[in-house]
Amino acid sequence: MRDYPAQCKADAVALYHSRPGVSVASVATDLGVSTETLRSWMRAPRPVAARPVPAGPASVETPVEEENRELRRQVAELKQEREILRRSR
Predict the structure, then answer these.
(1) 3-state class (DSSP) for residue 5
(2) Residue 83 phi/psi, 5° resolution?
(3) Contact 40, 46 (CB under 8 A)
(4) Model-level pTM greater than 0.70?
(5) What is the sign, positive or negative, of the torsion defined by CA atoms of 54, 55, 60, 63?
(6) Tens of pLDDT along 24-80?
(7) Which residues contact 47 (CB under 8 A, 6 or more apart)?
(8) Which of 28, 43, 80, 87 is spaced 20 to 30 Å from 58 by Cα?
(9) For residues 16 and 27, what is the distance between their CA atoms, to the nearest angstrom?
(10) Positive/negative CA dihedral, 35, 27, 39, 37
């Protein structure tokens, strides 16, 4: 049985919560842990994180801006996954 650092567990849970509509199994597979391991981390008590304050009124985005925003989100997500995996080794 492997022991993961607390920060790694918190990052994995945060990653799951940052990806609406994605299953626990999908995130667990991406991180290389079992589904039940990720679920147990999600059930563990943890401090309440500060919620981001929404920015001003939403602006109209062009299709290119929307695509760029989505690609940036995906890159950030992949970097976060890579960092979680790097710390868990």
Answers:
(1) coil
(2) -65, -40
(3) no
(4) no
(5) negative
(6) 999 999 999 999 999 999 998 865 554 455 555 656 778 888 888 899 999 999 999
(7) none
(8) 80
(9) 6
(10) positive
